[in-house]
Write a structure and sequence with these properties.
Largest sheet: 7 strands, mixed
Number of helices: 8
CATH class: Alpha Beta
Strand order of the largest sheet: 3-2-1-4-5-7-6
Structural class: alpha/beta
Number of strands: 7
CATH architecture: 3-Layer(aba) Sandwich
Number of domains: 1
Length: 253
């Protein structure tokens, strides 16, 4: 499968447009949800919070910790992480529109801030953070390895990275490939395989702790609810089981 590499500035402009088109009722999460059972009727907004909580529980941070949120969206996960753990959170995005929305949303929340920055060239000194999170952002990067290296440098020894990513769980059938290609192209993403993660993490200086396939708890339900809400318009993606999602936990030695 040939994939065009995303350009960070183009991704930023994509999310500027997308964020500007969303009103205040669209919620403060821009990521997929997590449902405990396939037939659950929990709304997407609650399921998205559930996924944030799964990520947060694996960060192992507490009051006094400093967390980096790579690809922070409009601030929902960062504020939720701070509220549940007492940690400070600094979020970055290359979308100025997202940063403006996030700072407005978190204006009354202590210890949460957002900065316009490129994850491939992070503006932080080494060992600035106790943990990092990247929820559905790394697939927008032109090179995951570069971002993982940047995150590793920003982490203190012992610090954890918890991320969610889309993956090719199995070879995508030829008849489904055009649908996947269109989705990746329109949203400036690339796919990797689950087996790509262990070597990528090692090269970045990170130790793999856990890879959890969450596809059965997130993909079909999210695509279906997006379609019902009139967002994204890719209901056909709900039937492509080979297109999945993983939760990855790594640690800096």
């Amino acid at each position: 499968m040939s994939q065009a590499l995303p350009v960070p500035e183009d991704v930023g402009r994509l999310y500027d447009r997308f964020t500007a088109s969303r009103d205040a009722t669209s919620g403060v999460n821009m990521h997929f949800g997590y449902w405990d059972t396939p037939d659950s009727d929990v709304p997407l907004s609650d399921a998205a919070d559930r996924l944030t909580d799964l990520v947060t529980d694996r960060l192992r941070v507490a009051q006094g910790s400093h967390v980096l949120d790579v690809g922070c969206g409009v601030g929902g996960p960062a504020v939720r992480i701070a509220g549940r753990t007492g940690a400070r959170v600094t979020g970055i995005s290359n979308s100025q529109e997202q940063i403006s929305r996030a700072n407005a949303f978190a204006a009354s929340v202590d210890g949460v801030e957002f900065r316009h920055a490129d994850a491939t060239r992070m503006p932080f000194p080494p060992r600035s953070f106790d943990a990092a999170v990247a929820m559905e952002s790394i697939f927008h990067m032109p090179d995951r390895a570069v971002v993982l290296d940047q995150i590793c440098q920003a982490l203190r020894p012992g610090g954890r990275l918890v991320l969610t990513d889309f993956v090719e769980r199995a070879p995508i059938p030829v008849d489904k490939q055009p649908v996947v290609d269109r989705y990746l192209r329109e949203f400036m993403m690339t796919l990797v395989r689950v087996d790509d993660y262990p070597p990528m993490l090692r090269l970045a200086g990170l130790r793999l702790v856990e890879i959890l396939d969450i596809s059965e708890h997130t993909m079909r339900q999210t695509f279906s609810q997006f379609s019902e809400q009139g967002e994204f318009g890719h209901s056909a993606m709900a039937d492509i089981a080979e297109f999945g999602a993983v939760l990855v936990v790594a640690q800096k030695p």
